[in-house]
Amino acid sequence: MSTLAQPKRAPETPSPKTKKVQKEVGQDRAATSQGRWAFWLISPALVLLAVVIVYPVVNAIIMAFQKDQGLDPATKLFVQGGPAGFDNFVHWLAQQCGPAACAPGTLGSQFWSAVGTTFFFTVVTVVLETVLGFWMAVIMARTFRGRSALRAAVLVPWAIPTAVTAKLWFFIFAFDGIANKLFGTAILWTGSEWPARWAIIISDVWKTTPFMALLILAGLQIIPAEVYEAAKVDGASAWQRFTQITLPLVKPALMVAVLFRVLDALRMYDLPAIMTQGSNNTTTLSILVVEQIRQGFNSAAALSTITFLIIFLVAFIFVRFLGANAVASATPKTKGQEK
Questions:
Q1: For residues 310 and 113, what is the distance between their CA atoms, to the nearest angstrom?
Q2: CA 256 – CA 237 distance, rounded (Å)
Q3: How far is the C-alpha of 240 from the C-alpha of 242, rounded, in Å?
Q4: DSSP 246
Q5: How far apart are CA 209 and CA 155, in angstroms?
Q6: How far, CA to CA in Å, does 227 sit from each of 61, 93, 143, 234, 242?
Q7: Cβ atoms within 10 Å of 339's Cβ, excluding its own
Q8: Crossing angle of helices 111-141 and 247-266, rounded to 10°
Q9: CB-CB contact of 69 with 80 (8 Å)
Q10: pLDDT tens readout for residues 297-313
Q11: pTM score
């Protein structure tokens, strides 16, 4: 009985398609492994952020729904607190102190005027700082002798602590201050409403315009010089180069700078608190919160929550509708992702 030798089968050569699938599987496993390492590496930072940011916000919201300890204005009896529902929010939004409207002069009656004052300071100061900061950034972007010294000098107002700035301008606008001697007047600038408001605005613009200028300057410096040279060759005027090249290309940096300043101005406290103590209709929301803390933490927590929601809404509008995104990815979009 003879046995026929079986022919040996040649090893199969993977097709190009199989190689591609194996390569993609390997890449997926590597990406998954890198993703796990990235998660474990950033998890301490996430825990720290949860402790220092999320916990205070959640705790403030919980406190906002609790009653303050103290005398009940309706019964004149001492109350220990307890659940308050939306009473603290109604107290501020509807300016209700118990069953009746808050009396003039009380903190509860100042909520909407504080909102108006805060937004007035925010709009006026941010507009002035943006215009002046843009002008300063354009000058500093040019090449001239002493440019480095100018950039360092511009930072001086920004480097001074806000409390020191407030006291400095308080003396300038005092009755015997430099402002009266310079303008030949004899008024107490912080003693009436509109002079006090403009004194605060001038102080804030003086201090914060360098911050805007430096952020805008960073945006100007990423514009290639070849773009301007090409525009000059095509006969574009200086105004056309500004409106057609500078503004569109610097818009992302400009919007981020405006967003930062708006959020900062909505929390304005030091300047009006030191210069006017919130008198003469210069009370901002932050000053109102601090004043309320001295009378009750839970009601102050409700006011803080309302202030937080206002600032969050403003930030959302800037990011969603005006294109101000400080955390946007620098990775260019693929063709399929572009709209």
A1: 15
A2: 28
A3: 5
A4: I
A5: 9
A6: 51, 52, 17, 11, 12
A7: 3
A8: 140
A9: yes
A10: 889 999 999 999 999 99
A11: 0.80
Beta strands (DSSP E) in 188-288 are none
With contact defined as beta carbons under 8 Å apart, do 280 and 190 qualify? yes
Residues, the chain? 339
Residue 332's φ and ψ, nearest 5 degrees, are -65, 145
- CA nearest neighbour of 272 among 188, 180, 175, 203: 203
The encoded tokens of residue 319 equal 């990011």
Query: Do 241 and 228 touch, CB atoms closer than 8 A?
Result: yes
- pLDDT per residue as tens digits for the range 237-276: 888 888 888 888 888 888 888 998 999 999 999 999 999 9
Q: Measured between alpha carbons, how far is 266 from 250 in angstroms, rounded to an integer?
A: 24
Write the DSSP symbol of residue 65. Answer: T
Give every CB contact of residue 289 below 8 A, 6+ residues apart in sequence: 300, 303, 304, 307
Rg (CA), the chain: 30
Nearest to 157 by CA among 215, 193, 92, 204: 204
CB neighbourhood size of 28 (10 A): 10
How far apart are alpha carbons 301 and 59 in whole angstroms? 9
> Cβ distance 108 to 96 under 8 Å?
yes
Residues in Cβ contact with 329 at an 8 Å cutoff, skipping those fewer than 6 apart = none
* CA dihedral of residues 90, 92, 96, 98 (deg, nearest 10): 70
Dump the DSSP string for 183-242.
HT----GGGSHHHHHHHHHHHHHHHHHHHHHHHHHHHHTTS-HHHHHHHHHTT--HHHHI
Residue, of 151 and 124, whose pLDDT is higher? 124
Distance between CA atoms of residues 272 and 75, nearest Å: 36
The token duo for 104 is 């003039």
Helices 162-172 and 193-220: crossing angle in degrees, nearest 10, is 130
Nearest Cα neighbor of 269 from 277, 260, 259, 261 is 277
In angstroms, the Cα distances linking 33 to 4, 38, 42, 79 are 51, 9, 14, 57
Going by C-alpha positions, the residue among 137, 99, 144, 100 that lies closest to residue 220 is: 137
